[in-house]
Amino acid sequence: MILFLLLPSFGLNKAWRVALLLALLAVSFIPLDGLTLAAYLRSHIDDLAVTTLVFMAWGCLRRMDFLPPARGQTGVLTVFAVMALALYPATLGMSDLDPYRFGFSPRPMLVFVALLTLGLFYLRNYLAVVMLAGATLAFVVGIKPSHNYWDYLVDPLLGLYCCLALLVLAMGWIYGRLGTLRRSA
Amino acid sequence: MRIKLPSLPAVGAYLALSCLFAGAWFSHPAPVHSSFALMKPVMAVADQVAKPIYTSRFASSGLVDFVHSSAVTALPDGSLMAVWFAGTREGAADVQVRSARFDAKSGEWGAEQVLATRDSTQQGTRKYIRKLGNPVVALAPDNRLWLFYVSVSMGGWAGSAVNVMVSDDYGRQWSEPRQLITSPFLNISTLVRSAPVFHADGSIGLPVYHEFLGKFAEYLYLSADGNVIDKYRISHGNNSLQPTVVPLDGQRGVALLRYAGNTHHRVLASRTEDAGQTWSEPYPLDPSNPNSSLAAVATPEHGLLVALNDLQEGRFKLSLYGTDAEMDDWRSLRDLDKSPDPLGAPFSPEAYKEIIGQEFRGSSGALRQPLEAQFLSNLDTRVCKNQGCEFEYEYPYFIRSPDGMYHLVYSWNNTFIKHVTFNDAWLAERVH
Question: N or C: which end of chain B has fewer CB within 10 A?
Answer without folding.
Answer: N
